[in-house]
Amino acid sequence: MSKINVINPKLAEILANAPSNDVARQDYFISIAKEEIQRRSDELGRKLTCCVNTFGCQMNARDSEKILGVLEAAGYVESEDEHSDFVIYNTCTVRENANNRVWGRLGYLSTIKKKNAQMIIALCGCMMQEDIVREKIKKSYPYVDLVFGTHNIYRFSELLVQTLFSDYQIMEILDDSKKIVEELPIVRKYAYKSGVNIMFGCNNFCTYCIVPYVRGREKSREPKDIINEVKKLAADGVIEIMLLGQNVNSYGKGLEHPISFAELLQEVEKIDGIERIRFMTSHPKDLSDELIDVMAHSKKICKHLHLPVQSGSTNLLKSMNRRYTREHYLALVKKIREKLPDIALTTDIIVGFPGETDQDFEDTLSLVKEVEYDSAFTFIYSKRTGTPAASFENQIPDDVVKERFDRLLKVVQEISAKKAMEYTGKVVDVLVEEVNAQDPSLVTGRLSNNSVVHFAADKKFIGSIVNVHLDECKGFYYLGTMVTE
Ligand code: 5AD
Ligand code: SF4
Prior knowledge:
Layout: H1 9-16, H2 22-44, E1 49-54, H3 58-73, E2 77-78, E3 86-91, H4 96-114, E4 120-125, H5 131-140, E5 146-148, H6 156-164, E6 170-172, E7 193-197, E8 199-200, H7 211-215, E9 219-220, H8 223-235, E10 240-244, H9 261-269, E11 276-280, H10 289-297, E12 304-306, H11 314-319, H12 326-339, E13 344-351, H13 358-371, E14 375-380, H14 398-421, E15 427-435, E16 442-447, E17 452-456, E18 465-473, E19 477-482
Parallel strand pairs: 1-2, 1-3, 3-4, 4-5, 5-6, 7-10, 10-11, 12-13, 13-14, 17-19
Antiparallel strand pairs: 8-9, 15-16, 15-18, 16-17, 18-19
């Protein structure tokens, strides 16, 4: 028997009085949530806590900062512990195992909820954009209070209020972002570095990838909004920013006054206070000579380029719809290395894509050896329902994939270790990020090329750039000594 969702009269009144302007509307709902959280907190004689658990990529990490911004503005206190009054999973669905982790943990959350009547369980992010996922939640996870998608984040405070005043499951999903709402509260995870969205969505439709279906069509933010955000961050003490988009190289298309990603970078470079600029992710087919030149002349853009190749076989690249060939990719790498000799190159590689022959895989191995990546993320192909590749013939048997994956990983690791050794003995700029988790007498910092170094220093250096001698390479990280104060 299905439950009838009767709207609470108080909620009906709140909704009727809401302003229509997006920003004013969300502020209005934050103030209502705040009153209600305060009331509950007074009743319980303690602060209400919230826990935001993020799966997946940097885009999700940035979205989680927005979610936490609203929760804190409403009066929740952040906690790392899932025994909290509000727990939200910001989900990823790029690979099946990301989904499985969420299903597994939801069972655990239900046991916590049984002991805390206040508890609200919420789910958002890419996985929620999938119809089958939402059907499963409706059917089998009635104790989930709130579900929303990747295009509804700007409405989160409103959804929070609806959840606080309802006793049924709230579910709101939009198929695509009609608008980009600026100026919502954000709680940054780090004081000195921040992600900045420059665009949302993806138009590329690589045949294995679910992102275009769950994140919608590519949409760039206005340059002036991006610049204003970066200026505000700089004024707030941020020295490193990471410009975020699924395909930053096609930034600016579709704007009323189109500008290129390279032009945007030049504008960001001018902002005082910003000392390091990173960006993620570049598609090889769109990486322009203009961008390489801007990087070569920049004092702030980090010496790191993440350039996902996915496969070293032109045949496979074609069936992945990547729209470049092995030769094109290698020529691009050559050009980049000529103009940016000290750049660190990293990549993503998929093993076991449907139809991958022994020869295709050997082509990937040989490309990895030729490029000599500083590091590479290697993924086993995961079949995503709704993508073209899910219905391709010649899905590769698990044992073959596993054997190829292990071989690739070994080669990748050997090359990474060799590349890392090349820096040993050098003095480099390091942004001090945090006290070392294992040894509090050390701090951990990051080089321009994205590698990590541990060294003895006072925690007062966190958030500043210092010179560090790289004493020893430990494979994936360095041990060093600070050489200036
Ligand atoms: N299976 C395995 N890996 C995938 N990726 C994207 N979709 C899939 C999939 N279906 C990888 C790609 C991409 C990275 C973010 O995730 O390598 O660059
Ligand atoms: Fe997915 Fe390809 Fe878009 Fe990257 S470029 S998000 S792999 S469709």
